[in-house]
């Protein structure tokens, strides 16, 4: 285990008061970065191979490099801490246990993109996390790590913690920016992209919490150190969130490219007496995998080659007692509820997916309904303003692909085969 896990962001999580500046230590990486040219900081992050940890996996340094320089406009950094994806639970514990890694990363990133104002947009329901962030920011201000003339470099930075209202759609970067400006959170049509016209119509970088929190270790240890972990195109480490029917669920920080089989070995395997049936590599908005994918390297390329997405590395594990149809229905109900309603394919499509899946789950459907839900999903995919619609189609297509017989079994027996009133074992009536 010790040779596979790479505790960097999670290294001090088990220490008392890990969230305080006394335990975290001085901002040495930020001090080092502020003594560098901003372009050299961007280049270091490019050389490290760090890719966005929020799901899309876009190269972080390249994203910073898109910000125009000498344009006469203010630049902004916005940290997307609106973690809402079902099964995803890495950013919340990271901000709870190690908020100063995020604050130090914000200083370095803001300096690199020539921004003097930064924001952490955090989900409003997680009040305990918001309090931790406020405390960490206050400590940083008191120490002189935020505010005017940081480390005597002449660089000024103001950091604001902003609480959202708890809308899943605000995890989409342009909807987040609208919400931060005080408007209803709805995705914008792109282009223009945030790098050109983001917050207050000015150049803006929007990055995930884990992406920014990874930056101090890159500056402190060097780009080659970070690039030495992971795979050729998916470099570095990441936090893998294991939940569901696993013996020891939790956060496992490991190099990209590790397999679920290896992670399960460290997590004590599937709960005793059961076996894995299906799982998600990156949360509910990524196509599901089955037991045949246990040895797929968990990096952006390998997972994509097998027909899914690494996403947020939210590994939801389900054993043979779980009804796939019921699971997909619950996910679809979530997406239908969280759709902002701005675009017709997502608004109407998720609603009708929910209605048909309800009928299927109750055993009242027909085989034609399987064609109906895949047709609806096809008409949502690629036709929505943002990725919410695309994500809602992933469990539909993949579950029908791998578990078509289970769908059929529902209306063959007139109900769910996992309902004790219908049957307790597959095939019984």
Q: Explain this structure to me?
A:
The chain has 18 helices and nine strands. It is an alpha/beta fold. It folds into three domains: 202 residues, NADH-ubiquinone oxidoreductase 51kDa subunit (Rossmann fold, 3-Layer(aba) Sandwich); 83 residues, Ubiquitin-like (UB roll) (Roll), CATH 3.10.20.600; 90 residues, Up-down Bundle (de novo design (two linked rop proteins)), CATH 1.20.1440. A five-stranded mixed beta sheet has the order 6-5-9-7-8, with no helix packed on it. It has a four-stranded parallel beta sheet with strand order 3-2-1-4, with helices on both faces. A hairpin with a 5-residue loop joins strand 5 and strand 6. The chain is globular, with a radius of gyration of 22 Å.
């Amino acid at each position: 285990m010790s040779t596979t896990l790479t505790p960097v962001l999670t290294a001090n999580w088990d220490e008392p008061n890990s969230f305080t500046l006394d335990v975290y230590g001085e901002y040495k990486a930020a001090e080092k970065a502020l003594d560098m040219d901003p372009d050299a900081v961007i280049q270091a992050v490019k050389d490290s191979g760090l890719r966005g940890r929020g799901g899309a996996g876009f190269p972080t340094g390249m994203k910073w490099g898109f910000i125009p320089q000498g344009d006469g406009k203010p630049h902004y950094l916005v940290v997307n801490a609106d973690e809402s994806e079902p099964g995803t639970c890495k950013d919340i514990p990271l901000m709870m246990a190690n908020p100063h890694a995020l604050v130090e990363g914000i200083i370095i990133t803001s300096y690199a993109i020539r921004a003097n104002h930064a924001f952490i947009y955090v989900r409003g329901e997680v009040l305990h996390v918001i309090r931790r962030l406020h405390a960490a920011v206050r400590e940083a201000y008191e120490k002189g790590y935020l505010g005017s003339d940081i480390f005597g470099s002449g660089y000024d930075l103001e950091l604001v913690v902003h609480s959202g209202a708890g809308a899943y759609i605000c995890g989409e970067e342009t909807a987040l920016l609208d919400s931060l400006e005080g408007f209803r959170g709805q995705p914008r049509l792109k282009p223009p992209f945030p790098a050109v016209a983001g917050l207050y119509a000015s150049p803006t970088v929007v990055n995930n919490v884990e992406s920014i929190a990874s930056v101090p270790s890159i500056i402190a240890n060097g780009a080659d150190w970070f690039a030495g972990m992971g795979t050729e195109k998916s470099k570095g480490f990441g936090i893998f969130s294991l939940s569901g029917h696993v013996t020891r669920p939790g956060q496992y920080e490991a190099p990209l490219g590790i397999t679920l089989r290896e992670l399960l070995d460290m997590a004590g395997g599937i709960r005793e007496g059961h076996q894995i049936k299906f799982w998600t590599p990156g949360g509910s908005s990524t196509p599901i995998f089955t037991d045949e994918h246990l040895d797929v390297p968990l990096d952006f390329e390998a997972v994509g080659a097998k027909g899914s997405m690494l996403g947020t590395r939210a590994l939801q594990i389900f054993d043979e007692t779980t009804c796939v149809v019921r699971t997909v229905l619950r996910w679809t109900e979530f997406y239908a509820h969280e759709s902002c309603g701005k675009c017709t394919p997502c608004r109407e499509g998720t609603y009708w997916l929910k209605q048909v899946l309800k009928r299927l789950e109750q055993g009242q459907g027909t085989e034609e309904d399987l064609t109906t839900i895949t047709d609806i999903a096809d008409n949502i995919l690629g036709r929505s303003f943002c990725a919410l619609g695309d994500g809602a189609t992933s469990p539909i297509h993949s579950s029908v692909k791998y578990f078509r017989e289970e769908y059929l079994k529902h209306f063959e027996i007139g109900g769910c085969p996992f309902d004790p009133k219908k049957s307790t074992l597959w095939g019984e009536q």
